Amino acid sequence: MKPTLLILAAGMGSRYGGIKQMDSFGPSGETIIDYSIFDAINSGFGKIVFIIRADFEQAFKDLFEPKLAGKIATEYVLQDMQSHMGDFSTPDTRSKPWGTAHAVLCAKDVIHEPFAVINADDFYGRDAFEKAAQFLKNEVSPATYCIIGYNLAKTLSKNGTVSRGVCQVDGNSNLVSIIERTKIFPEGDQIFYEEKSEKLPIPANTPVSMNFWGFHPTVFEFIQKLFIEFLQENRNDPKAEFFIPIIGDKFIKDSGNAIKVIPTEAQWFGVTYKEDAEEVREDFNQLIEAGVYPPRLWS
Asked: Which of 34, 61, 93, 215 is at a distance of 20 to 30 A from 43, taking alpha carbons?
């Protein structure tokens, strides 16, 4: 059975200032998502599931369906704040989605096979998709998931600080923990992060998560349980978010479970800030000139 790719495309893009999931970055109008899907198809994925918002649902389908029809199966799922809340209701003070782990949970009814999760606004590189597909076809199980680990130095922005999930990995390449480090930035030939107004160094080759995960479909039951626990503790906090690393942390603390950290040397790039857009377009032009991608992805 071919694995599925779940693309988280319901983000608000507050720092970017627009719907970056649908912006053009390739020379023929390609979005970043197009390049991820192109790599996924060539790596052996069999279905794409998009998590989107109702306010751009039709425009999103109009953009992607003509390109993908006949190339790969597609599903569209709305991230509704009320979804999977059980007996709880959304408080009036809540205006933003519950977070990435809730977005994954929203796909529960359309994914029944091993699957990978990625962000819509990140470029991950072909190597990452090939390694994820091989893991999902040969190694994933109810007790073993994976995460693609990037070198920190290959995930920075020139236009501002970034937040990254710093991975602690044991001698068997299994994840021990993910610690969210905020305000990471390069300075000279070093990289630093800020914590409580203190500037601290961090090695350039530190493995970090870019939210590229591989799961067995039994994860949905696990996420549902944790989401209800999250709501019990946080539902009245308008800023609380239910993130995928929460799932990973709880999973590896259960006896016998493991998350394999699969390293990649791929260069990440993405659009955190509006100023990133032109650099990302130039990055794609360089990959096209190098023969990695054709000038027009979907002919």
From this structure: 61
The token duo for 267 is: 């260069």
Q: For residues 229 and 235, is the Cβ–Cβ distance under 8 A?
A: no
**73 Cβ neighbours under 8 A, 6+ residues apart:** 46, 47, 48
- Summarised one tens digit per residue, pLDDT across range 214-242 is 999 999 999 999 999 999 998 888 888 89
Q: How many other CB atoms are there within 10 angstroms of residue 184's CB atom?
A: 21
Distance CA 5, CA 30 (A): 18
> What gap in Å lies between CA 176 and CA 256, rounded to an integer?
13
How is the chain split into domains, by residue range?
A: 4-289
Tell me the residue length of the chain: 299
Q: From the centroid of its chain, how far is CA 128?
A: 12
15-40 average pLDDT score: 84
Q: What is the pLDDT of residue 202?
A: 94
Between CA 51 and CA 11 the distance in angstroms is 9
Q: Which residue has the tokens 């970017």?
A: 16
Work out the average pLDDT over 155-172.
90
Q: Which long-range contacts (CB under 8 A, 24 or more apart) does 282-289 make?
A: 283/123, 284/25, 284/26, 284/27, 284/30, 284/35, 284/123, 285/27, 288/26, 288/27
Query: Nearest-CA neighbor of 238 among 105, 96, 102?
Result: 96
User: Is the overall model pTM greater than 0.90, yes or no?
Assistant: yes
Determine which helix (DSSP H) or strand (DSSP E) holds 197, and give its type and residue range: none
What kind of fold does domain 4-289 have according to CATH? Spore Coat Polysaccharide Biosynthesis Protein SpsA; Chain A (3.90.550)
